[in-house]
Amino acid sequence: MLKSKSSDEHIGNITDKDSLEFALFSANIQHILNVPSSSEIIGIYERSKTFQKKQANWNPNNPLDKLSAQLFNTLQKTTFIATFHFGYYRSLVLKLVNDGYKVCIPVARKILDSQMSYYANVLGVIRARNIVLLDAEDSGLFFKIAKYSKLGYHTLCYLDGGSGVKTKRIRSRGSLVQVSLANGYIISKLAFLKFAYICNLSVILCIHSGRLVDIDCDNLSVKYYPVLEDESSDAYSRRIIHQLYSDFESFLIKNPEMWECWFYLHQSNLPKSKSSNWKIEDRLLLLF
User: Fold this and answer.
1) CA 216 – CA 12 distance, rounded (Å)
2) How is the chain split into domains, by residue range?
3) Cβ proximity of 80 and 192 under 8 Å
4) Could you say which DSSP state residue 203 is in?
5) I need a surface site. Which of 25, 181, 204, 263 has the fewest CB within 10 A?
6) Among positive and negative, which fits the CA dihedral 38, 39, 42, 48?
7) How far apart are CA 45 and CA 67, in angstroms?
8) Closest Cα to residue 174, out of 157, 187, 162?
9) Could you tell me the CA-to-CA distances from 33 to 29, 43, 154, 182 in Å, in that order?
10) 88, 65 in Cβ contact below 8 A?
11) How far is residue 241's CA from residue 87's CA, in Å, rounded to a whole number?
12) Per residue in 145-190, pLDDT tens?
């Protein structure tokens, strides 16, 4: 379907500089959400850009509300915290450190230094020592996480982080799985959940609800995923990865503009459409 004249007014707001970014963003949206309306896609794009600016301008030194009682109780022992780049997701780490917890976070190698600088600037050098950032592509990653777990560090993992998804080493180990998300699929890693099982770490999903972080309310959604009786590490990790994305889906559909990954999903998690959901007349091509 070629863009209709009614789309011209919306597309006119997108500059030539943004056209490639929008084309990739649009493809990711259509793979996952199967949105046939060009004006709706452009609306999500514009709201996402606006939310990006809010994220960038948010003052991380604003007073942060305390962790919810549910999360507080869960963190009484070393825990694996699964989350997504959704809402004001950076506030989760700041909440944990402000409440006296230590956190270990695997991150992409290319942003390791910038993330270290960010937390040092926001928290100060002393408090930032309670955050350990590890190279997610390091072959010895899990040995390092195990070491920090024994020292009382909770492991926080962004499930939608794509580090290693395209590498032959990860693929050869059978650590990848295709996960359903709304009207599409993405590729995700199982290794972290298998590690949590082996190390007897409780797995919880913690998602920022999207509400502002400096208002007097609990804006973190928390869910616990126990191991079933006689369940193997492989069976557990495969069951839970699908449940985690299914639970995330409700947040995504309600506020799609709050998921940062739309801008780079094609580079990391390899989105794919559920072709059975596509009608020929709904296939959309936007021309510039």
Assistant:
1) 40
2) 5-57+272-282, 69-254
3) yes
4) E
5) 263
6) negative
7) 31
8) 187
9) 5, 14, 33, 6
10) no
11) 20
12) 999 999 999 999 999 986 644 444 444 456 789 999 999 999 998 9
